[in-house]
Please model this.
Amino acid sequence: MSDTPVIAVEGLSKVYDGGFQALKEVDLAIRRGEIFALLGPNGAGKTTLISVICGLVNASAGHVSVDGYDNVRHFREARSRIGLVPQELTSEAFSTVWDTVSFSRGLFGKPRDPVHIEKVLKSLSLWDKRRNRLITLSGGMKRRVLIAKALAHEPEILFLDEPTAGVDVELRRDMWEVVRGLRDNGVTIILTTHYIEEAEEMADRIGVIRAGELVLVEEKHELMRKLGRKELTLHLREPLTTVPERLAHHDLRLADDGHALVYTYDGRHNGDDDQAGIADLLADLEEAGIHFKDLHTRQSSLEEIFVSLVREKA
Model:
């Protein structure tokens, strides 16, 4: 990936008529060729941020550049590099898939290119449906048509606003494969999603937005390493009624009616510190005469991290 961001957002704010501030001094750099997931509760500002970047909503302050072009002064150049997939298909119900996608290409002043349209439709498993009218398609197929329309003019950047909302799990995973394929072909992907598993499965980096503020941007794996709580559960041979006083300096709690001890630690420590802490705990347990028959570890999911971040900023 290039070090120069393909999208640069600086000091972006948006205040609507009536005084509601939807965005508050947002700074964000999107790397070329990455999948970036924007997470946030309803009303957090996700769609507003996308709309401002795409030039559909005017910012109150700050500016945006797309592949080096200011999205206000050089709107046409900036917008031509962007494909936007909205949440719903709202028109053209009686048009065919082929005509709808071809028309979208023409809107951007691109010459007819049946070979490209064919390639897009085949990549989205829409080729067999190319003569079907949109009104006859399933919800999942309509969602694919939205993506095809956004790709018709060969954009370098693709925005997906809740791309799999309301579709079943199997189709959702199919869509993930489509998005990964686009990324592998050099398209930069920015998606908003309510599905934490979607970000955890696909994203290279994750941004968390709340009440119009971008509260965190981090590599997915680094985010989970730094903020992910880890637990070591020790299944005891003999149950305990309380945690012994001599073990009080460890972060321990009883579980399973005293048949398990749960040791909590976090990824802010490096691996050596974690191992040392566990070794000290096991030594102290041995000294206290507490024996266990099994153990296992788990790490917080991205969903748990996200919930904790939103609460923390509330």
